[in-house]
Amino acid sequence: MTEITEAFLRALPKTDLHMHLEGSLEPETMFMLAQRNGLTLRWPSPEALRAAYAFRDLPDFLALYFEACAVLCSERDFHDATAAYLRRARQDGVAHAEIFFGPQSFTERGIPVAAMMDGILGAIAEAEDAAFSAGLLVSVHRHRSEEAAFEVLRAVEPWSDRILGIGMGGAEIGNPPMKFARFFRAAQDAGFPTMVHAGEEGPAAYVRDALDLDVQRIDHGVAAAADPALVADLAARGVPLTVCPLSNLRLNVVPSLAAHPLASLLRAGVRVTVNSDDPPYFGGWVTENLLACAQAMDLSRAEIVQLLRNGFDAAFVPEPRRAALHAQLEASLAG
Ligand code: ADE
Ligand code: ZN
What we know:
There is one protein chain. By secondary structure, the protein is of the alpha/beta class. It has one domain: Alpha-Beta Barrel (TIM Barrel). It contains 17 helices and 8 strands. Strands 1-2-3-4 form a 4-stranded parallel β-sheet, with helices on both faces. Helix 8 links the parallel strand 3 and strand 4. Helix 5 packs parallel to helix 7 and helix 8 packs parallel to helix 9. The structure holds adenine and zinc ion. Adenine (ADE) binds next to helix 4.
């Protein structure tokens, strides 16, 4: 039995490096936003919506996730959704958060990119202080075309100084990272750190693709565990994996958390981190993800601390901020 408790985990400074703003809305917030915008959801209540959170796989989840994007319409909506996530993350003991946001779900409904960017970036600026940092990762959809991804890159250019990185999510199978090779090269040439979802539902070969694209981080990446040579390469190159264990469980990527490869990847020296993905949909924020893993995988205190250190090392922060995060963890463990 693990000695790790929820209170211990909540009190430690943590990162959340893989969390989608569109997937952060609590059902109650979705109903509030729908009402604000004169929309009617097809569920009678927040409780009924929450009860619909039972997913067969990633595409099944994405159908609901994209449908629910309809409640976000105005700059104020994007601001309030971001502020709500940041407040909740802080309560969870997150000291640094990086928020994925995919403009294509909204540009296709005619919403101006400025409303999204100004709302999100405004809420981030208001939430940051000496103890808490956050940033935006702009994400494109892999089930759309490479040209559509280039359009996103052009559209967010006016905000490039305030974007931490460029990533890619969406329906994975049949859409390998290499389909977007020119896009990732262009994002890197424009000076952005890049990351890509790979090896969530897709095979280890997609994680190899991601490595070959020279991205700074790989989101999920758990399929790599099936390929020992790839695991060795990930460890040797120190490329972080932003793993989301409860997401993997709820989307049936793994049959149980006991069978999840997080612990074996960590013990093989891969820089794995624990993150929340779409927290209300999957039943947990970072603390719940860490606790569920500690219990199912019998993680030691030293292994938990390594996961948190990996988060600080994988974060897109200036070096003084990284040092402060590490120091805050040391102080918290000593106290
Ligand atoms: N967008 C939001 N959550 C996602 C996930 N788990 N995989 C791919 N794209 C996503
Ligand atoms: Zn994700």
